[in-house]
Amino acid sequence: DGGITQSPKYLFRKEGQNVTLSCEQNLNHDAMYWYRQDPGQGLRLIYYSQIVNDFQKGDIAEGYSVSREKKESFPLTVTSAQKNPTAFYLCASSMDESGNTIYFGEGSWLTVV
Amino acid sequence: GQQVMQIPQYQHVQEGEDFTTYCNSSTTLSNIQWYKQRPGGHPVFLIQLVKSGEVKKQKRLTFQFGEAKKNSSLHITATQTTDVGTYFCAVEKGYSTLTFGKGTMLLVSP
Fold it and tell me: What are phi and psi of B83, to 5 degrees?
């Protein structure tokens, strides 16, 4: 569980504004992920990154963007193009991409009004 | 892509009763993982099953992987209020990510 820090934990934004969620890990993990959680929907993959300066779209990447300039950091930007941005966002990491255990941060609650 | 069906979506039990959640796939799985998410919290890894027919136990929790590696179950014996939460199974999608089931929410009444 420890070693992955997400901020902020709670965030309110007006519709039409971009917002960036921070995710930092000190586990020396190669792979990092962003998931979105909605009630009754489980966890859905937004983006993932296996190595610095490289990332791939997940199942619901539209309206989101990411960067991976450092191994420790994988910020997620929720853009104004995301139709329903209000959700619980979870950042995660794993040792590598080969199906290893995923460790989650504590999550960020984003509410767009 | 790889999908898993998890049932039931929700279960409410009295403390001391048993609980089981099932995860089913239409395709053969290389492995399956189980996670628990407490209310208001984040998912936490419980276990990974790899071998056909594998059974693993963690105190009151018993995890099984089907012989055909297409289904798995998590059984809790004599539930306690501390077992409350949502239990997710997760399977590899492609070679690099996990796909999660929709989860089973467990509520335990004292």
Answer: -85, -5
Q: What is the DSSP letter of B30?
A: S
The whole-angstrom separation of Cα B68 and Cα B51 is 10
Tens digit of pLDDT for each residue in A52-91?
A: 999 999 999 999 999 999 999 999 999 988 889 999 999 9
Ramachandran region, residue B50 (left: φ > 0; alpha: ψ -120 to 50; beta: rest): alpha
List the single residue in A40, A50, A107 with the smallest CB-CB distance to B96: A50
Nearest to B95 among A43, A59, A97 (CB): A97
At a CB cut-off of 8 Å and minimum separation 6, what does B12 contact? B106, B107, B108, B109
User: Dihedral (C-alpha) A98, A99, A101, A107: value to the nearest 10 degrees?
Assistant: 100
Put simply, the answer to whether A42 touches B31 (Cβ < 8 Å) is: no
Residues in chain B within 8 Å Cβ distance of A35: 100
CA distances from B33 to A28, A99, A106, B100, B103 (A): 22, 9, 19, 9, 12
Please give chain B's pLDDT, 110 residues, in tens.
558 999 999 999 999 999 999 999 999 999 999 999 999 999 999 999 999 999 999 999 999 999 999 999 999 999 999 999 999 999 987 666 889 999 999 999 99
User: What distance in Å separates the CA atoms of residue A17 and residue A14, rounded to the nearest whole number?
Assistant: 6
Task: Indicate yes or no: CB of B100 within 8 angstroms of CB of A43.
Answer: yes
Give the angle subtended at the CA of B90 by the CAs of B110 and A4, to the nearest 5°: 85
